[in-house]
Amino acid sequence: MSTTSTLFIDGEWVASADGGTRDIHCPADGELVGTVSEATTADVEAAIAAARAAFDRGDWSAVPAPERGDFLLRVAAGLRDRKDQFARAETLDTGKRIIESEIDIDDITACFAYFGKLAGQDAGRIVDAGTSDVVSRIQYEPVGVCGLISPWNYPLLQAAWKIAPALAAGNSIILKPSELTPHTAILMMQLLHDLGLPRGVANLVLGAGAVAGAPLSSHPDVDMVSFTGGLETGKVIAASAAATVKKVALELGGKNPNVIFADADFDAAIDNALNAAFVHSGQVCSAGARLVVEASIAEKFVDELVRRAQLIRLGGPFDPDAETGPLISAAHRDKVTAYVAKGIAEGARLRCGGTWGEGDLAKGFYFTPTVLDEVQRGMSVVIDEAFGPVVTVETFETEDEAVLIANDTVYGLAGAVWTQDAGRAQRIANRLRHGTIWINDYHPYLPQAEWGGFGQSGVGRELGPMGLAEYHEAKHVYQNI
Ligand code: NAD
């Protein structure tokens, strides 16, 4: 592969049809990471045609599911072998700490291993037709050609949550990663190719969403589009996909409540509130961006949170002392800056942060951990996703009020409750309208447990058995004997 032949179409590394390229810079210091092809509409159409032809030939779609599962287990082994290469590429594209990228690659490996094992087990079922004259069964078949569109915050992880189940189910895929973070997608295509995936089954297009991504939701030869990204883009994709009635899976944003009761383990709740809000500089769909604290401990809790937030050390991806890294781009830093300014203008009180990195950090897009209190429901800072290191504080007096505040969002991705009262923990968990609820923890997830959103956080689920089912059609075969 030459450095600018980075589209992978029908088993070949090719350059863009018009020779277009894009430079990728590391958000931590602005250094050039690489130059990649920028796909044209014709390139995307070629990728769709290759995926369609591979699907129709049955090179992969007709392979028995247990064999497809074995292949995914080999992908997991390949990821283990190439972990350092993948982690370094992820870190240079995103600016995130290398230790976080290493964890991401471990999680991606676990995802492939999970779907590799699940692939051969999910064989459909026999249906009791109520008479011995009929044989009836449900069999699962691949949907067909799947367009997979992923964001920049966890570039390969979010892509892997789609690639692994889509391939496990026998589909052909076209992956369109974020234009800001293409390099681990390139490595992934190379790994799939090296392991012998038939040509055309997995294709890669790179570039801006409006060109490289849009055909994946509009083209009649794409049967399904699976998208992870922002709410507004999700709406555009869903509307576009409606014209050809594609299957649509959407993993969108969140404005996630972290509810702290007065009886919580104070130190653990503080540690986790910091991690919830500030890990990866808050560029996490499930970030605990809304702290909802029982009024009787709010002052003490927020004082300590602010004290600790000011101690968080920003730094480059290979700085072993860094605790969090930069935002993805100058444009994104401007967005977060404007968001905080608007919150203050609406009446929020800035307790700490709100500034850019200085000195050596001025070369990157660093933003200091920010706490805003005295916010009111209805302010933009408590409604909109900042996708940066910004946490707001609201207070409550009763369980009912805590639930009301926590559910007061169009989103519904994730939330947490902190209390040592097990009954209360379960009561609150049952009443929160979010796809993941943590009790006395924040952020862990499991490949075998479904992930996804209530409300406008999305449609469908990734991971777990439902994450595979998204990529299946169910066919009822009924035989009168
Ligand atoms: P984004 O919506 O700007 O872009 C996501 C992807 O869509 C990119 O690959 C982009 O190029 C592509 N795209 C843009 N316009 C398109 C179009 N018209 N047609 C097809 N593709 C198009 O999102 P982002 O800024 O990359 O990512 C951040 C967002 O992702 C946040 O809102 C975050 O909450 C969300 N996210 C959600 C989850 C989840 O699991 N729910 C996980 C990670 C990120």
From TrEMBL:
What stretch or stretches form a coiled coil here?
none
Matching Gene3D superfamilies, A to Z?
Answer: Aldehyde Dehydrogenase, Chain A, domain 1, Aldehyde Dehydrogenase, Chain A, domain 2
**Which Pfam families does UniProt cross-reference here?**
Aldedh
Sequence ranges assigned to domain Aldehyde dehydrogenase in this UniProt record? 13-477
Family annotation (SUPFAM superfamilies): ALDH-like
Which keywords describe this protein according to UniProt? NAD, Oxidoreductase
Q: In which pathway does it act?
A: Amine and polyamine biosynthesis; betaine biosynthesis via choline pathway; betaine from betaine aldehyde: step 1/1
Q: Name one GO molecular function term.
A: oxidoreductase activity, acting on the aldehyde or oxo group of donors, NAD or NADP as acceptor
Q: Where is the active site?
A: 251
Q: Does the keyword Nucleotide-binding apply?
A: no
Q: Which family does it belong to?
A: Belongs to the aldehyde dehydrogenase family.
The molecule here is called Betaine-aldehyde dehydrogenase
Q: Which organism's genome codes for this protein?
A: Marisediminicola antarctica
